Amino acid sequence: MPVLNTMRTSFFLTLAAIGSAIAQRPANTSICDYYTTALFGNSNATNEYSLLVALVNTVVIGNYTKPNVGVRVPGILTPGLYNGVLSDILPFFNGALASSNRGGSSGVAINFLDDGGAAPLMKSMPAYTTTSNQYKLMTHLYQFFGSLLGCSAYGSTGFPAYSGSASMASVHRFMDLDPTDLGYFIAQVALAAASFGVADTDVAAVGAALQSLFGYRCAPPTTVIAAQGAQLQSVCEDDTCPLAPNATCAAYPAITPAMDANATGAATASMGTGVGAMTVTWNETCGCHMTQPASNASFSVNMSPTSTMSSASATATGSMTQASNAGVGMREGLGALALAIAGVAFVL
Ligand code: HEM
After folding, report:
1. Mutational pocket test of ligand 1: of 111, 133, 172, the residue with most ligand atoms within 8 Å of the beta carbon
2. Count of domains in the chain?
3. 232 close to 170: Cβ distance less than 8 angstroms
4. Domain that holds residue 88
5. 321 against 248, higher pLDDT
């Protein structure tokens, strides 16, 4: 993929130069356009798309660009702590859970790492081919976040418009995501942006927007992708998620816990009695996934305009090499990664 290879070269060359530019984004320039220019010299469809590839790939697998500005990103495929609670969302992506909504009344298991997994992502590609689950998910994420971040070339040649499902509530319906999983996901987006030198105020704005749009239960229909109009967008649908202002819970289907992909019908019946009451977690003691009652871990959200994000403990120690991420999808290094993420907290 020549475009992406070109991106890698220019990205690495210009990354070191952004330090002086990051604090001055004009209000009328989008985050996407501003940081594309800072990193690539100018903002066009190719460069904007390249920024989104680098950002989303980093969210998924952790740091792979070298160097970065010293912010360590574990990535969503690696378990870690969020507000002191362990989050492990890999099983939603590798087919271990029957949690994808493919139109039926229950979730189905799909492996979204079916086309090279981390390896092509580390080459700034979505996948090795264009026909896989992995390719579809990754390209949809580039498009979706490109729209969210205001890329001016979004929808033009070189930056295709989002072509995935319109309702985020529907996409994530069978995942029963709770504030810890959602918070961990958003934290990875924030860390990935920070790792490219995005200014704290812009990182905080992105985190606040994601939390506001997707982090509340029963949110009324909202337009995220302009061409798709107002849709149900709550991704955090577990009953431990904070309730949205003007909540419209009746518009949302009942939540069912995400099931192990190999669960039997009997298991389904016994777990289905407590709607939203079960959650799958990673247990450090046994080194296994456990299905257990949802935690009542507290999660406070303050929507004040003076939003800040604290990521001090995550910004400390040098860059991460590609080699240190080679074990994506495995669980070694959990302790170190947990330490890295433990201090990440949103105050939105
Ligand atoms: C800010 C929060 C989030 C946003 C904006 C978001 C956005 C998206 C988008 C745009 C897609 C592609 C949909 C499509 O291809 O039609 C997607 C799919 C997916 N997301 Fe999320 N997501 C979020 C949080 C999460 C979390 C916390 C998980 C954790 C498990 C997750 C797991 C998935 C999975 C497994 C898919 C593939 C589903 C499928 O194609 O069946 N997402 N997400």
Report:
1. 172
2. 1
3. yes
4. 2-347
5. 248
